[in-house]
Design brief:
The chain has about 400 residues and is α+β, with helices and mostly antiparallel strands. It has 10 helices and 17 strands.
Amino acid sequence: MVMTRQWYASAPVVDGGPLLEEPGFWAAYLADLAGEFPPGAFGADPADAGDALERLDDPAAWPVFTVPLDGGGAILAHRNNGEAHSTTDHVLTRPGRDEWLVLASDDQDRIGPGLCWPELDALRHPPESATTGALDPHDRLLLLLPLLGDTAAPASREAVAAVATALTARGAPEESGEPLARQLLGGHPTWGAARWTYDADAASWLCEGPHSPRTEPLGTFLSWRRHLVQHDYGMGALLWWMWAPSAREIVETYAEVEVVPLAEDRPGLDGPNGLEELDIDTPAPGSPLSDFRDRRSAQRGHPAFGALAGRDRVWLRWREEDAGADDPTYLLELGPDGRWLRQVEQPPEGPHVRSSSDDWPINPPLDLYDPDLVEIEIPSAAFEEAWRRARPEETP
């Protein structure tokens, strides 16, 4: 479905940007998604939320919120206040086209969802060339939340953390950030959530929802963004910039790598002497990434592939590949990133010794997508019992 620019030509359209600073705005803007959560969960006074809703629904001033995209396009959240009930159209504009694509609309046509989480995660980062519209990542994320309808989103730690962080940055109490984030990630009540799949040939996400316009590919510009990819080998790390539709696509394509958060205190990553920049489909010839991709390709067909990924804790009975008869066995407790949290060292003879990550200056992660790790998984109770019986490691 498309919509011409002339659709709103005679409407009293105004820039909604100034409303973002109004007290109670986010409680009003996200009220349809919030369910039973009151304005106080957003850190807003109910009276302020009511005033903000009146501004949003003002028939004399229809606010439009602009989220600029790479390449000169934008997603517009356009209020329609001329009917008995106010509605919102979320439309995609693209340079050189007079027609707008409706990604989501909560009017009687019921169109949506318009985005999956990997796309929304990418879109919260503004293009470097943009100078107008919503540029703050928290504002962009919250403005686009009503388009989301992804069954995988509420269970994603990354998604919950991102939305909770945005909410608290906009005044929500910390104690309500995570539960409210899970609620908001559940999908708009008009169209709910749907399953999305990534079409590698079309380089686009596709939605299975019956009311979604996203059954046809839209291309890479909605979803691909640059990620910082790291192979931590213990004594150091290899780093690359990689363009991909999501962090998950990267770790499912390459073994022994992780996508690390960007930090302002890591200079030298850009510029002529910065990191090599790749896309997910073209690893640098002769680099370890080619081997990592081949290794992952061999693992992907295994029924246990990725079985340990996404867990808060994993417990393993570990021996080094070249371990001899006199070498110890290690019981390991791993965090969600595959790094060791606690271990019990069990030599063939002598006392068992326990230690924690605070005692280790080097702690490279294990690849939790590796199906071979499933064969050495142990119950948490077995680890805790061994931990209880072991003596603490002696410090010099």
